[in-house]
C-alpha cells in the first residue's frame, strides 16, 4: 500500500514565505489556524501546480489574511499554521516564492526556506 507523499522542507518553507507576505508589524492577539486555511484555500491549486498566475480569489485571500493577521502574535500563529499545512499539500517552492509579486504585494523580507516563525513580528 502506498503512503502519501510527505512534503520536503523546501516547499514547506515556500508556503511559510507566503505567510510572511501577508504579515507586517503588529501587537497582540491570535488568529485561528482555521481562519488562515480559509484565507489561503483558493491558493492551493496554484501552489501545487506551480504554473500560471494565482486566481483572483487566491490574491483576495492573501490580502484578507494580511489584514486579519495584524498583530505579532497573529503573524507567528499564521506562520506556524502555514508550515503545518504545507506538509500536507506539497507546494511548488517557486510558485510560493512568486505569490507575493504575482498578487501585487511587496514584502519587507527575503522569502527563504529557512523561515523562523518566532522571528516574525
UniProtKB/TrEMBL annotation:
GO molecular function: lipid binding
Keywords: Disulfide bond, Lipid-binding, Signal, Transport
Organism in which the protein naturally occurs: Castanea mollissima
Record family assignment: Belongs to the plant LTP family.
Record PANTHER family: NON-SPECIFIC LIPID-TRANSFER PROTEIN 2-RELATED
Keyword Ligase: no
SUPFAM superfamilies, per the entry: Bifunctional inhibitor/lipid-transfer protein/seed storage 2S albumin
GO BP annotations listed: lipid transport
Region forming the signal peptide: 1-29
SMART domains: AAI
Annotated ranges, domain Bifunctional inhibitor/plant lipid transfer protein/seed storage helical: 33-117
Function statement: Plant non-specific lipid-transfer proteins transfer phospholipids as well as galactolipids across membranes. May play a role in wax or cutin deposition in the cell walls of expanding epidermal cells and certain secretory tissues.
Stated name of the protein: Non-specific lipid-transfer protein
Amino acid at each position: 500500500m502506498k503512503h502519501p507523499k510527505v512534503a520536503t522542507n523546501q516547499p514547506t518553507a515556500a508556503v511559510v514565505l507566503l505567510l510572511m507576505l501577508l504579515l507586517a508589524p503588529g501587537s497582540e492577539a491570535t488568529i485561528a489556524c482555521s481562519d488562515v486555511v480559509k484565507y489561503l484555500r483558493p491558493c492551493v491549486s496554484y501552489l501545487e501546480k506551480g504554473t500560471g498566475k494565482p486566481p483572483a480569489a487566491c490574491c483576495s485571500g492573501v490580502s484578507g489574511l494580511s489584514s486579519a493577521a495584524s498583530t505579532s502574535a497573529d503573524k507567528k500563529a499564521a506562520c506556524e499554521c502555514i508550515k503545518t499545512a504545507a506538509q500536507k499539500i506539497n507546494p511548488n517552492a517557486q510558485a510560493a516564492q512568486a505569490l507575493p509579486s504575482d498578487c501585487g504585494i511587496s514584502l519587507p523580507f527575503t522569502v527563504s526556506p529557512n523561515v523562523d516563525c518566532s522571528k516574525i513580528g
